[in-house]
């Protein structure tokens, strides 16, 4: 019984490997290296991050305006605005940091 299961498992795995060699996968990003991939993905990330950062800044401002003198809400609003700005700056810098790092390693 054990030999029979081994035979079936071996046949199954060998067939899967043989058919896997025939599969052609296309690159959905159209990039061959990291720099090209970042260049292709960065505009989409900026397009997604810009409205999110805007909404977070508006939310932080809303917290500060409606705080009614509550220092905790004012502090929370300031932190929200700061974190939204830092996050958006990180997304903007991501597209420019990769070419600099690639040029350092290519020297």
Write structural notes for this entry.
This protein has 107 residues and is mostly helical. It has one domain. Helices cover 81% and strands 0% of the residues. It has three helices and no strands. The protein has helices at residues 2-20, 34-65, 71-106. The longest helix is centred in the last third of the chain and has 36 residues, at 71-106. The protein is elongated and about 80 Å long. The termini are far apart. The mean pLDDT is 82.
Write the SSE topology.
Layout: H1 2-20, H2 34-65, H3 71-106
Helix pairs in contact: 2-3
Summary keywords:
107 residues
Low-confidence stretches: none
- The protein's oligomeric status is single chain
Beta-strand level of the residues, as a percent range? under 5%
- How many structural domains does the protein architecture include? 1
Overall mean pLDDT stands at 82
- What's the end-to-end separation, in Å? 61 Å
Kindly name the structural category: mainly alpha
Largest sheet: none
Shape: elongated
Spell the H/E element sequence: HHH
Find the count of extended strands (DSSP E, 2+ residues): 0
Provide a quick synopsis of the model.
This protein is an all-alpha fold. The protein is 81% helix and 0% strand.
């Amino acid at each position: 019984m054990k030999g029979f299961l081994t035979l079936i498992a071996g046949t199954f795995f060998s067939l899967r490997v043989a058919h896997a060699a025939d599969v052609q996968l296309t690159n959905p990003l159209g990039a061959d290296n990291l720099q090209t991939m970042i260049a292709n993905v960065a505009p989409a990330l900026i397009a997604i991050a810009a409205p999110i950062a805007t909404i977070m800044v508006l939310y932080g401002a809303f917290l500060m305006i409606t705080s009614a003198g509550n220092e905790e809400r004012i502090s929370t609003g300031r932190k929200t605005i700061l974190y939204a700005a830092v996050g958006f700056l990180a997304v903007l810098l991501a597209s420019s940091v990769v070419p600099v790092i690639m040029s350092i390693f290519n020297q």
